[in-house]
Design brief:
Layout lengths: L10 E3 H4 L8 H17 L2 E4 L2 H19 L23 E5 L4 E6 L19 H22 L25 E7 L12 E3 L5 E3 L12 E6 L4 E4 L5 E3 L8 E6 L1 H6 L9 E3 L1 E2 L8 E8 L6 E2 L2 H5 L12 E2 H6 L4 H5 L21 E5 L9 H23 L9 H7 L8 H7 L15 H11 L7 H4 L5 H7 L8 H9 L3 E5 L1
Parallel strand pairs: 1-2
Antiparallel strand pairs: 2-11, 3-4, 4-5, 5-14, 6-7, 7-13, 8-11, 8-14, 9-10, 9-12, 15-16, 17-18
Protein name: 2-oxoglutarate (2OG) and Fe(II)-dependent oxygenase superfamily protein
InterPro entries: IPNS-like_sf (IPR027443)
Length: 497
């Protein structure tokens, strides 16, 4: 998703994001663009609800404060949160994390909360209405992102809950009512506090950064404290100046997976400023739009829209496996080494892995020149072009090869601005190097790899694949860059079946 340089977090009216039949209005296109640019630059945006919905959110926060205030000072043992990922779609009712001074009440339609000792516990008021409000908003936001990515209407319907839920269905999405550092909540003697020079106490979560596994998350809090990391690695407070009818929206890991990495997940952390006279702590309403457990995340819609999809995103990932695994967020957190998760793929007997990596041995054949040319172009894309795009706040959105052959001759094509901003070589279609013809790959490399020339080794790749394979043993690699690259690929070969 490309950003064009917003000076602050984007603010978008929810009513402007509601899709309608026919051509999109100017307000819809502007709102979609602002939302997408804000998510690309800041990994978050501000959503403005109508006044009537703002009143519902404020009353929900007030009810949350009263609910947690009347709770016991220390939770029962069975209410302690155990972080069991296998129960990701079954959490309901009250639980607590004393180490983090955090209490949560999860509302999940279709699931009755279990209370110990058959005690009667009245939940915070208005949860069904708030769930419906935030759920509808999250779906509208998801559709707006799909529109920006040029996907078809409601492309994620198959992995979302039915609206309304069918008989005996349990919602995968959840509304969490949270409270941090309630003064009357005891048992957090070992919480992690850091003292600033001015004597103010701030508590951060145990992990330096967290990311939701949701598609879309919406958060409304009564006090500031949510920090999100932007494109350049800076942490900034996103909820410091929220209006009474505004909430924060940010994407999660599931959306990153479903869009082949085109929408980056938000990394966040929470701090709580301890204030004198604050008897309720910091309360928030957090809605997470989750995929159904009995579904899989795949990038078929992205491929159908003509986007380049890297190999690690090609195979479907079961949602239940996705939720139970701990993704390597450290790799995702480092924007220069962004990686996909190595989750188990769908095993239905009809699908074989597209790419297999095996150890090199004495019997392994060298890569044919055409494949080396492709891999070299992919490497340069990641290291050179992606670096330019990241510095300019641009998310690369590749065209379909057949369509882009006409784009390169027009100034008002969908990819014209991106090609111009990153200096894409003239006459080369704006598609992933994997899909470029070999001659265009060479033009791409000559533009972005200083000193690169099409030596005899690469010229062989312009012949038929069979001929290239036969002649590969006689190729010469005179370019230092090629020698270095081929050496690093000597440890394995790619076997495409």
């Amino acid at each position: 998703m490309a950003g064009s340089g917003l000076t602050s977090l984007g603010r978008v009216k929810l009513t402007d994001l509601v899709p309608c039949e026919g051509l999109p209005s100017d307000s819809y296109k502007l709102s979609v663009s602002t939302l997408s640019q804000s998510l690309a630059q800041y990994s978050a945006a501000i959503i403005q609800f109508p006044a009537s919905d703002g009143a519902l959110l404020r009353s929900g926060l007030e009810s949350a404060r009263l609910y947690f205030h009347q709770r016991a000072s220390y939770p029962a043992a069975e209410m302690i949160h155990n972080n069991d990922s296998r129960e990701w779609c079954k959490t309901s009712g009250y639980y607590a994390d004393p180490q983090m001074w955090q209490e949560t009440y999860d509302y999940r339609p279709g699931l009755t909360p279990n209370e110990p000792n058959n005690t009667m516990d009245l939940p915070p008021a208005g949860l069904p209405d708030i769930f419906a409000l935030l759920g509808k908003a999250a779906r509208d936001i998801l559709d707006a992102i799909s529109f920006y990515l040029n996907l078809r209407s409601s492309p994620f319907t198959e992995i979302l809950d039915n609206v309304p839920l069918r008989n005996r269905e349990i919602s995968s999405s959840v509304l969490s009512v949270c409270c941090y550092t309630r003064p009357s909540f005891q048992g957090a003697q070992h919480h992690n506090l850091a003292t600033q020079e001015d004597g103010q106490l701030i508590m951060f979560t145990d992990h330096e950064h967290q990311a939701d596994k949701s598609l879309i998350s919406l958060v409304k809090s009564d006090k500031a404290g949510l920090h999100i990391r932007d494109l350049h690695g800076r942490w900034f407070l996103v909820d410091s100046d929220l209006g009474p009818q505004e909430a924060i929206v940010y994407p999660g890991l599931a959306l990153y997976q479903a869009t082949a990495g085109y929408v980056n997940p938000a990394f966040y952390r929470t701090d709580i400023n301890t204030m004198q006279g604050n008897m309720h702590g910091r309360c928030s309403l957090a809605f997470k739009l989750m995929p159904k457990s009995m579904s899989s995340l795949n990038c078929s819609e992205m491929r159908a829209a003509g986007h380049g999809v890297e190999a690690q995103f090609l195979l479907p990932v079961l949602v239940d496996d996705f939720m139970q695994k701990s993704p390597p967020t450290d790799q995702l957190f480092n924007r220069q080494n962004i990686q996909c998760f190595n989750f188990p793929t769908v095993q239905d007997g009809s699908m074989k892995p597209l790419v297999r990596r095996r150890k090199h041995d004495s019997r392994s054949k060298p890569l044919p020149p055409s494949k080396r040319l492709r891999l070299e172009a992919q490497r340069v894309l990641k290291e050179r072009v992606q670096d330019i795009a990241d510095k300019k706040g641009i998310k690369l959105r590749f065209c379909n090869l057949k369509e882009c052959e006409s784009h390169v001759h027009t100034l008002d094509s969908p990819c014209a601005n991106i090609r111009m901003e990153i200096g894409w070589p003239a006459g080369v279609p704006f598609v992933h190097p994997h899909d470029l013809p070999n001659k265009a790959k060479i033009g791409f490399l000559e533009a972005y790899e200083p000193g690169w020339t099409a030596t005899h080794d690469m010229e062989l790749s312009l012949t038929e694949p069979g001929q290239a394979s036969q002649q590969s043993a006689n190729c010469n690699c005179n370019s230092p860059i090629q020698v270095s690259y081929l050496h690093c690929n000597a440890s394995y070969v790619l076997d495409v079946s």
